[in-house]
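User: Before I run my own analysis I want an independent prediction to cross-check against. Here's the chain; please return only the structure tokens and, at the end, one sentence I can use as a sanity check.
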Amino acid sequence: MAEAPANEAPYRLLNDVQFGVDVVVHAFTNLYGCRIGDESRIGPFVEIQSGVEIGARCKIQSHSFICSGVTIADEVFVGHGVLFINDKRPRATTDDGELQTADDWTQLATVVERGASLGSGCVVLGGVRIGAGALVGAGAVVTRDVGEGEVVAGIPARAMVAERMR
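Assistant: Structure tokens:
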């Protein structure tokens, strides 16, 4: 593991990050408590939260948000402005009107398997698995699992072709 990204860039918040070899992190990023695999590229204006694992040779494009509970395997492409969500019932307060704490909600795990591609602007709800080699169309809202090699698009995301890509 490297101690820092392979490149210099201004205005980065890098706190408690495990970097693989030759990782590139562009400016205006917030990375904390996460792991980034070898040769991955993190674009500008990206936030990756605590507990997230990004595999090797991934490309995370600008303006994407990857929240706690997400695991991304090797060779995954995350397009511009992709948004992950880890709570299906978000609330600011409890039934008693108190601000919620970490004890008041359940974090949902999301997995993106090897070689999948997520189109720009897609939203991935918590608790889903996107299979190896799958392709999620731009602007899609993924509400359920996507099979290996499956191509999905739309709101909610639905299979586009019966034939698998891989």
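Sanity check: The first strand starts at residue 12 and ends at 15.
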